[in-house]
Specification:
347 residues; alpha/beta; Rossmann fold; 3 domains; 4-stranded parallel beta sheet; 42% helix; 15% strand; globular; binds 1,3-dihydroxyacetonephosphate; binds iron/sulfur cluster
Length: 347
């Protein structure tokens, strides 16, 4: 296969750094970028692996919150770089830390023990608030285990920012709908329904992923009509209605396994980010027919390109801190505590 000059220069840089550099990437990265990674994974695998690396530099191909998690879990002196510093996750930005702090203060005003459980798709500041309130982080791969843990730890749980992952996980645990309440966070929390909030076991922040909420019941109906024997598997950031109509739902690593274990000759329709679906279709093309439920791309993930990766590697080689992810001291310990609790519960 013929590669571009850009591809070759990135590979040359990687050889030059040797064991001083680890390139990590999330499965939603494009093929051009992911093929330069030493480690690829879903959010949970990447957090776990970041905690055990020895290289001086980690270049993280993904979105901001992932690079921040890697920086929190990295060893002292290790440097984490993000090739596209403006690659944010729109869902993570739906729960500002100041509002979480204010709402937690309200929910706990009478001494009720409310445990915040933050999906890793949240900002560093949010993880810091969560850590200070004895809460933890979770990913889509361990949300069930972490929600069980949080329910045991307190009188109620505040799950944020993804209401869909929260509701889908509650369904798995059999938490009745009457025991859940989606918080009204408008007007800086002035519209909160105090009675409902004070009596519910599971409080849900009203965030969502616009990439996964694009999947709909109509698309599932169409897929079933066009491929009656197909199995449909979706990510739990999809709405509970879509999850209920699919044959299976699970994290990125679950979807990868589900496709790998499908019987030869079958058709699998996948409802998640298109780069992953296309890669799975290509990897299994001799054996399976893997199709997207509909093409849905994460534009935040797509901000990391080969050009950006090359620029970041050049900067790191030149000793520049332009792409460095820095963690302010005042949030480091509490935010890390939220991640460490997750890793300890799921060890
Ligand atoms: P997972 O990697 O936990 O499956 O999450 C998907 C996602 O949306 C990452 O942003
Ligand atoms: Fe955020 Fe959704 Fe993109 Fe994941 S897929 S990075 S949750 S916007």
């Amino acid at each position: 296969m013929m590669y571009s000059a850009l591809h070759e220069s990135i590979e040359a840089r990687r050889r030059e750094f040797g064991s001083d550099l680890t390139v990590m990437g999330h499965h939603y990265q494009t093929e051009e970028v992911i093929r330069h990674t030493d480690i690829r994974g879903d959010s949970l695998e990447l957090s776990r692996r970041a905690a055990g690396l020895d290289s001086e530099h980690i270049v993280f191909c993904g979105v901001y919150f992932m690079a921040e998690s890697a920086a929190l879990l990295a060893k002292q002196g290790q440097k984490v770089h993000l090739p596209e510093p403006s690659a944010e996750c729109s869902m993570a930005l739906m729960s500002p830390a100041f509002l979480l702090e204010a709402i937690l203060r309200f929910l706990t005003r009478s001494g009720r023990k409310v445990i915040p459980l933050a999906y890793v798709n949240s900002t560093l500041e949010v993880k810091s608030v969560v850590g200070r309130h004895n809460g933890a982080a979770c990913t889509s791969a361990n949300a069930k285990r972490m929600l069980e843990w949080a329910m045991r730890e307190g009188d109620a749980v505040l799950f944020l920012p993804d209401q869909n992952l929260g509701n889908n996980t509650a369904d798995l645990l059999g938490i009745p709908e009457q025991a859940r309440h989606i918080l009204d966070i408008r007007k800086r929390g002035e519209r909160l329904d105090a009675a409902a909030a004070d009596t519910s076991d599971l409080l849900l922040w009203p965030g969502f992923c616009s990439i996964h909420t694009r999947f709909s019941l109509r698309q599932i109906e169409r897929a079933r009509a066009e491929h009656p024997d197909a199995k449909i598997v979706v990510h739990p950031e999809c709405t509970p209605q879509v999850v209920a109509e699919a044959d299976a739902a699970g994290s990125t690593s679950f979807i990868i396994r589900y496709v790998a274990e499908a019987p030869a000759g079958s058709t699998i329709v996948v409802g998640t980010e298109i780069n992953l679906v296309e890669r799975l279709a290509d990897q299994h093309k001799e054996r399976l027919n893997v199709l997207p439920l509909v093409e849905s791309a994460c534009t935040h993930m797509a901000q990391t390109t080969e050009e950006r990766l090359s620029a970041a590697l050049d900067a790191v080689a030149g000793g520049s801190a332009d792409f460095l992810v820095s963690i302010p001291d005042e949030v480091r310990l509490p935010a890390k505590a939220a991640l460490d609790r997750m890793l300890a519960v799921c060890a």
